[in-house]
Amino acid sequence: MIELIKNPNLDFMGKKAYAFTVSGILSLLGILAAVQIGLGNANLGVDFAGGTAVQIKFAQTVPLHDVRKALEEGGLKDFDLQDLPTENKILIRVKKQEEKLGGASEKITQVLSQRFADKKPLVDSTTEIGPKVGSRLKQDALWAVMVATLGILIYVAWRFQFRFGIGATIATFHDVLAVLGIFYLLGKEMNLIVLSALLTIAGYSLTDTVVVFDRIRENMKRYLKEPVEVVINKSINEVLSRTIVTSFTVFLSSLALFLFGGEVIHDFALAMLLGVIVGTYSSVFVASPVVIALGQSKRRATGRQQPSKAKA
Amino acid sequence: MKKGVLWRIGIIIVTVLVAAVFFLPNTPLFRNMPEWWKKSMPDKGIVLGLDLQGGLHLVFEVEGDKAVEIAVERAASALNGIFERKKIQASVKNDGLFLVVTPGTPEARKVVEETYPALTLAGSTDGARYKMTPKEMQRIKDTATDQVLEIIRNRIDQFGVAEPTIHRQAENEIVVQLPGVKDPKRAVEIIGKTAQLEFKIVDDESRVAAELPASVLPGEEPALLEKLKLKMPEPDEILFQRIVNKETGMVTKRPFLLKKQTLLTGDLLTEAKVTIDQRFNEPYVSIAFNPSGAKIFEDITGLNVKKRLAIILDGNVYSAPVIQERIAGGNAQVTGSFGMEEAKDLAIVLRAGALPAPVRTLQNVTVGPSLGRDSIEAGKRAFFVGTLLVVVFMIFYYRLSGVIADFALVLNILLLLGAMASLNATLTMPGIAGIILAIGMAVDSNVLMFERMREELRSGKGPRAAVDGGYHKAFWTIFDSHVTTLITAAVLFQFGTGPIKGFAVTLSLGVAINLFTALIGTKTVFDIMYSKGDVKGLSI
Asked: What pLDDT sits at residue A183?
């Protein structure tokens, strides 16, 4: 039998102070990112901000400053350039919102295909989003986050006790905020794909939390005399290897996506990688301490109501 | 062997076969199947999304207010006719969404209210101001959106796109998806053009006509209109013709002073086709009117001999030939130094009819075929590498039990592909990511069970009891952990757009099927292995 750690007996709850510091910083970073996104200061993708994005593939490398110069000479203003050097691709974004769509992307393709005709530019994709759609997508995204959070809270509160629901939800928020914060620090673009990664993280980070909670629930019924902290610590130790292994398999598949999945899905995969790590950490160091912090009197009462299941 | 085990083996075999039948159209094998199979068995399979196939995703907004304005304009002109016949001293003008009757005498108002019950009095400064009731406006906008949808469908059919998707969204939006379109710009133009063809008489008699410059540069039009604004005769307007110098390629705009009244529109067309001019070897569009259109055309030309008749498309003058004589038969030409393609597209839009209201592009996402191909390649690679990593890890960590988990994983992938094919689900790049993530999550159920089994073994139970205990106790943990992922996937499905929806579909199907494969699939294998009861150990 290969085991990660043989009969672990680590004092997780004793490390609460460190964990809260780390988590506090990560969460604050995430809140800062959320505020900046709200204020429009973050790197919002055209799907949320509206505007035009054109991705062009060249047969050979084209230096970014050449492209910038060509576009400026062509009369374009307020654009961002980003390159994917391994594939000789350049992404041009114009965030200015236009009432009439089509002008900017046409101009960009025209200018670049004339100026770099020898490098065989090929339009990979163009995206034009009007201001109306952009703001609607932003609104939908906000709704999606709220509905998903509420759904998870209700489900966990129903399956477990209410304070477990709170613990799980706080841990979930923590994970999403942490990844959002790291993405903000890295200057990554916030778009629909990243948003769906964040929501997936929210769903998946719960898997680990549920595994831990399940055991806590079980052990609370079994060790009625022990203090909660001890029971929780024991439970975490018991399920430690499965917490790590389940995360690790998802980490592996996310890693494959990150390394081989191509540019479209790259940021998504990065978010998933970060999310899996943070999610595993939080189910041990965030969700459980919150449950402890929310008190214990109710638990004992519930524990005694179902003595027949206590032996499970 | 227990009877239950046989049943479960049966279920597994049947589901795999059904999945294979549904997924077959996505494999090269389908082409070699016998005719009867192709006819009676599922033949569509999984559809590739626009992001993988390349193509065009467009969202248009129908400018419903314009449709209401047009309706008001028509009402105004009809009312003027009635006033004239009944000899009522009043005139009607349209002012945007309003209809203004001056003077607003009780007599005139009575006629208005009786003829158009949907008009309600909205004010009485400078005559009586009427407005459509909100219900009527809604009806007009609604009808306009439906008509636009039909006309766009018609245009796309004539343009020739395989498997377009066109549907209405929200109140006044139209979504058009054109997979694999080679020339997206042309497609957008054909779909979005209002194509309102109008015939108006050029007013060469007014003094303003003499003051018009021969041409202005593009962009200078508003300045010219502003300059002449005060002198403009009441029933006239200025429209421009776009002129391209064939040698220099320079574009200029030539102004025309026109009588505002539209004498004839493209509504009465029966035919529009491309013809090549013999002398200049230049294509033009020849149009034919139906009998009533032909009659109107004959009257117009008869009444305006020696005057110029402007042919206007979407507010731009295309030509303004001098009428030499009364023209019977209802044939006319739209010329304008077109290229062949341009002329063809114009014929298409004229045949399909004008949009009852202009449309505005809200969203236009174009994916070139090469990016789609690259994405598919990358997706395949990530899929194989991801599967391999997970498969190898499971065998390394759980030995023989790992092999069983891998068997469940393969079963999971097969059933997922089959389920997607049976739903004719759309596979997008995020959808591929969803499959790959589902692979990582699929073995989680087995990990949870195996860890439980290990615990049971440690507590001194035999292999048989450990397997049963492991399944029994891990079930709710697996269930709970899957449901939370399903909740977020459902939310993503509800709120997401195309590619994201694809992700939600693959992830939720993958997770749901996982419950089946983990609980029925692997359990069956364990049951077969330990059915004899004399197995000493558990390779886990």
From this structure: 95
Q: CB of A251 within 8 Å of any CB in chain B?
A: yes
Three-state SS at A38: helix
User: Within a 10 A sphere around the Cβ of B466, how many other Cβ atoms?
Assistant: 23
Q: What is the amino acid identity at position B209?
A: A
Q: Give B374's contacts in chain A (Cβ within 8 Å).
A: 87, 262
Contacts of A312 in chain B (CB under 8 A): 473
* Residue stretches of chain B with pLDDT short of 70: 1-3, 498, 532-536
Task: Return the residue of A nearest to B391 by Cα.
Answer: A249
Q: Where are the domains of chain A?
A: 13-42+134-311, 51-129
CA distance A128 to B58: 9
Q: CA quadruple B433, B434, B436, B441: dihedral positive or negative?
A: positive
CB contact under 8 A, A196 and B496: yes
Contact of A168 with A209, CB cutoff 8 Å:
yes
Under an 8 A CB cutoff, do B477 and A133 touch?
no
Tell me whether domains A13-42+134-311 and A51-129 share a fold.
no
What percent helix, strand, coil does chain A show, rounded to 5? 70, 10, 20
> What are the DSSP E strand ranges found in B300-346?
309-313, 316-319, 331-334
Question: For residue B37, which amino acid is it?
Answer: W
Q: Does residue A103 belong to the interface with chain B, where contact is any CB pair within 8 Å?
A: no
Of A79-83, A299-303, B253-257, where does the model show the most confidence?
Answer: B253-257
* CATH architecture type of domain A13-42+134-311: Up-down Bundle (1.20)
* Domain B3-53+368-529: homologous superfamily in CATH: Multidrug efflux transporter AcrB transmembrane domain (1.20.1640.10)
The letter for the amino acid at B186 is R
Topology of the domain comprising B65-137: Alpha-Beta Plaits (3.30.70)
Selected for mutation to probe chain A from B412, B427, B444 (highest A CB count within 10 Å) is B444
Q: Which residue has the tokens 């006033």?
A: B83
Report residue B223 as tokens: 């300045």
SS3 B234: coil
Residue numbers in A near B504 (CB within 8 A): 196
**Residues of chain A contacting B474 with CB distance shorter than 8 Å:** none
Contacts of B490 in chain A (CB under 8 A): 151
Residue A154 has pLDDT above 90, yes or no: no
Cα(A72)–Cα(A65) distance, rounded to whole angstroms? Answer: 10
pLDDT at site A209: 87
Which of A:105-134 have CB within 8 Å of B? 105-106, 122-130, 132-133
Contacts of B465 (CB under 8 A, 6+ apart): B456
Q: Can you list the alpha helix ranges (DSSP code H) found in B423-462?
A: 429-458
In Å, how far from its chain's centre is CA A302?
35
User: Rounded mean pLDDT of A159-168?
Assistant: 82
CATH topology classification for B193-366: Gyrase A; domain 2 (3.30.1360)
Subunit contact B382:A259, Cβ cutoff 8 A: yes
| Cβ contact B257:B206 at 8 Å | yes
Give the nearest partner residue to A125 out of B371, B394, B473, using CB atoms. Answer: B371
pTM: 0.82
Chain A to chain B Cβ contacts (< 8 Å): 233
Q: Can you give the pLDDT at residue A103?
A: 75
Q: What pLDDT is attached to residue B173?
A: 92
DSSP per-residue string spanning A104-124? HHHHHHHHHHHHTGGG--EEE
Q: Please give the class, per CATH, of domain A51-129.
A: alpha beta
Q: Single out the residue of A238, A218, A215, A230 nearest to residue A7, CA to CA.
A: A238
Distance CA B460, CA B463 (A): 9
pLDDT tens digits, one per residue of B269-320: 888 889 888 887 888 899 999 999 999 999 999 999 999 999 998 889 988 9
For A88-239, strand residue ranges (E) read 89-94, 122-129
